[in-house]
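Request:
You are asked to prepare a plain-text protein record giving the amino acid sequence and the C-alpha cells, at your earliest convenience.
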Amino acid sequence: MGISMFEIFQYDFMIRAFLVGMAIAVIAPMIGTFLVLRKLSLFADSLSHVALAGVAIGVITGIYPVLAAVVTCVLAAIVIERLRSQGRIHSDAALSLFLSGSLALALILISLAHGFNVNLFNYLFGSITAVESTDVAIIGGLTVIVIITLVIFYKELLYISFDEESAKVSGLPVQRLNMLFMSLAAVTVSLSMRIVGILMVGALMVIPVLSALQISRSFRATMFSSVGFSVVSVFAGLFLSYYLNIVAGGAIIMFALLLFGLAMLFGKLSKAQ
C-alpha cells in the first residue's frame, strides 16, 4: 500500500508539481494574512482576472505566460494602490473596476486567439502535468524573493496593516511600502495560478488564513498556522488530483474548505471548555 501510494514520486512531472505547489503553499497565505487584516481579501480575485489577461497576452505574443502575468499584475497592483492612496476611488470600487475591465480584455484577447486551447485551460484551473522545469526555476526564484522581502519589511508592513495613519505620522514611507506589498501580492497571484488555477488563486490566499484565525491568537501565529493549513491542502490536493484524475485547483481548494470546517469546529469546542 505504501509503495503504491507514493508511486507518483517516480514521475518527474509530479516532483515538479510538488516543488511548485509547496512554494506556492508557503507564500500565498503569508501574503493572504496581510490582505485579510487589511480587509482586501478580494484583491487577489481581482488580480487573478488581471493575470488571465496577462496569460492571454503571453499566448498571443509568444511570451512565457507566467512572466506576462507577473508583469501585468504588478502594473495593475501599482495603479490600484495609487488610486486607493490618492482617494480618487474607494478600494472596493477600484478592485471592481480592474476585475471587470481585465476580464473583458482577457475575453477579447482569447477570442482573437481563436478561443480556449489546452494551455490556457491549464492556467484557468491548474494542472499538475503542465508544470515544466522552467516553472520550477522561475517560481522558485520569485518565491525566495517574496519571502525574503516579507521578512525584511515584516514589522513595517504589520504596522501599516494595523494603523496606516499612525504609520504615516511616525515617518514610515507608507506609499512606497504599500506599492511594494501590492507588487508582492501580484507576483504571488501570478505564480499560484500554475497549480491552483486563475479561478482559484484568491481562495488559496484567503481560506487557510480564515482557518488559522479560528485557532490562533496573534498575527504571527495566524501566519504560521495558515502556512501549515495551506501546505497540507496543496499536498493532499495534488495527491487527490493524481489518483482521482481531477483538476488540481478544485481538489486543493475543497480540501482547504474541509480544513476550515474542522478548524472552526475545533475553535468552538475550545471556547466552550
Q: What stands out?
A: The chain is about 80% helix and 0% strand. The two ends are 39 Å apart (CA to CA). Residues 30 and 223 are 6 Å apart (CA to CA). The domain at 2-266 is CATH 1.10.3470.10 (ABC transporter involved in vitamin B12 uptake, BtuC).
